[in-house]
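Quarterly update, task 2.4: uridine-5'-diphosphate-bound model.
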Amino acid sequence: MAIERTLVVIKPDGKKRKLTGLAIDRLDQSNLEMVAAKVVKVDRELAEQHYAALKGKPFFENLVKFFLGEFHGFKTCRLLALIYEGENAVAEVRRIVGATNPEEADPHSIRGSFGKINPKNGIMENVIHASGNTEDAKREIALWFGEGNIES
Ligand code: UDP
Ligand code: MG
């Protein structure tokens, strides 16, 4: 099995609801190692680039606003970004995080335990981001941490 790296971001709902420590605790139940951590000031450009693959979807604008913390009262949006490393890191983190739709996610997962769908706009407020595949992980790690900015 390949040693991989994957990106995790605690989303504004997770931050607002004080779930950061719990999310890290759940991820600590794996054999993965946290190899980088950074609080990032998120602007619209970063939010739109992070979700570039979803541009054109009807929910894109509300998703960007959600990610910028606009629905959770954050004027400046600072989010915790983490990199986890280890065997099968991408799939392993996704297993702990759970499926995109919190109503369908395994109830033992972070999203299944704590996520919800915003009744006003249908956005899935699912607490935590995790890269979907190794290609996304590489792109997202470069986007959030920059090339060569991670301790080896
Ligand atoms: N999302 C949503 N409605 C949808 C699909 C996605 O609100 O129908 C949001 C949700 O917050 C999700 C994010 O957009 O986590 C990114 O979507 P993606 O399909 O990449 O899901 P993920 O990889 O986060 O599970
Ligand atoms: Mg995704």
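Highlight for this quarter: The domain at 3-145 is CATH 3.30.70.141 (Alpha-Beta Plaits).
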